[in-house]
What does this fold into?
Amino acid sequence: MTEAAKPLQIWAVSDGRAGIQAQAVGLAEAVARRTRAQVTLKTVAWKGRVGRLPSLLNILPRRWIAPESGMAPPWPDLWIAAGRATLPLSIRMRRWSRGATFVVQVQDPRLPSHLFDLIVPPRHDRVHGDNVVAITGSPHRVTPERLEAELAAFREQIEALPRPRVAVLVGGKSKSFDLSAKRAAEIANSIHLPVAQEGGAILLTFSRRTPDQAKAIIASRLRGLPGIVWDGTGPNPYFAFLAAADFILVTEDSTNMATEAASTGKPVFILKMDGHSLKFRRLHEELERHGAARPFGGAFHGWRYEPLAETDRAAGEILRRMAERRADG
It folds into this structure.
């Protein structure tokens, strides 16, 4: 096989947390849809407390990386990493590979941009630079093909449900937001009435961050409606819910869920939580300007917009810049 015919070797690197991993993998898969490539998942694990050191002070990261992380040559052609745990490796990968690996960091690394070949942060973080490609929200794994495949796996449970089908994606506690019992009850009540009036069904799922009390309140108040309340056991119907929904409700605390919902082309409503974040407000304003999302006011109404395709745009930019570097090399 000639050098040109070899598939691009891509490592999607994260600390293994679902939301962080999905960003690295989603962007890697988007690149692989545009060119022949092999995607390998890598999970960073550190020995002891070394992983807590500032990235620039972790001067010998390969000595302290756990063996199961698999961080050894041959190095990939393209390194796509997300999350703080990956930074000590990302900022040294070009030196280790002698410039052969193109290094992409997802999210805001809060480090000088020249340490990477490309940074792909959310636009609401306001990171700027010649090697920065800011996107609305975060990279993800939502594609029409994936939604259709995931829906097929849950078709028996979903197909008989009445319309409109309302997907309810509930997050939870974070630095900026919380979900108190009072707010959880308000959210549940605001959803129950219009779904019942419309004769529709709910498709309800929670995140790992949802407080147990809030989860119990929302589930109990909505369980009387037709639909599915996923209890966290068995296969995850998240993508099937996105595929089957006529409307999507998303709590305001999650960049991933909001971006994934806006990538379906379906009306997205943002649910207010306890707390406030200027950065998240900027994200929701971006989604509103795109025509994808609106604040939830207790009623459902439909509209059309072009599904968000920021992951594909970032993937195209990665390949363009890699080609430029080869031409200059």
Notes: Residues 310-328 form the longest helix (19 residues). The chain has a mean pLDDT of 94. The first strand starts at residue 8 and ends at 14.
